[in-house]
Specification:
- Helix 14 runs antiparallel to helix 15.
- About 75% of the residues lie in helices and about 0% in strands.
- The protein is built from 15 helices and two strands.
- It has two domains: about 90 residues, no CATH class; about 220 residues, Orthogonal Bundle (MetI-like fold).
- The chain is mostly helical.
- The chain starts with a helix and ends in a 7-residue tail after the last helix.
Amino acid sequence: MIGFVLRRLVQSVLVVIGVTIIVFVLIRLLPGGTARATLGPRATAAEIHAFVVANGLNHPIPVQYVLYLKRLLSGNLGYSYHYNESVASLLATNVPKTALLVGLAYAVSLLVSVPLGIYQAVKRNSVGDYAVTAVAFVGYAMPTFWAGMLLILGFAITWPVLPAEAPQGATVGAILSQPSGLVLPVVTLAFVNFAMFSRFMRSSAIENLVQDYIRTARAKGMRSWWILYRHLLPNSLGPIVSLVGLSLPVVLSGAVVAEAVFNFPGMGLLFWNAALKQDYPLMMGFTVVVSVATVLGSLVADICYAIIDPRVRFD
């Protein structure tokens, strides 16, 4: 296990470095350049030249990346000229709020999709199975922004029982103080996750239902609910655990759209505004944080998979 973790950590570092290289080069190749995007269209040639020299943008791109990597290793994610604040402080303020939103969406989707996936496996090819499958397919096909807009139309305009805007606040506590405003953003993200998790849970449960240990438990006269809870559920959760880690980039990309739709003051909305304002240092900082979160999520999912299923061994 220790050797596996060490190998995965090395792979994770290489993946993060590869992602930063690609994004760094793409940003440097954008028309207009970083200096023009930062200083604005009215900046003079002298001002642009001074900015280029001061930030090392006059060096070749490989040298610029090495300088950026050195700053990154020292904890310096850059400086946002649009917000007039360091990228690290902006992310430190907004990452916990996005983590709250994504965490709640994961919890809701798992609490719904796991029981429904088992129900579909037990009652496969029934009317209930087909109904849940239809809902899951709708979730697969529906873009995040469209799901959010439909929820706003239904529950904030046509039937005004929930606010259309997410809670506004600088801290997680301030966000939690307005729980009604969290309902629509969380349901929007949870609906997309539900479509993915329920299908995998159904397939995994169907595969385990035909295994010998299930037939043996039934032959011993165990109650059906105990077989499902004690034997089927633990052995069917493995793919879901792995999927949770691998789906983190998809959920975070959905969080960017959901936060923009509901004006949720988190990291996703911050990145959305940074893209509109061409705030390249902030976009790079967001990319680094998401890359690290993705590889760590995948690593934790693999370790949890081994804990849940003792049959799994890593050499």
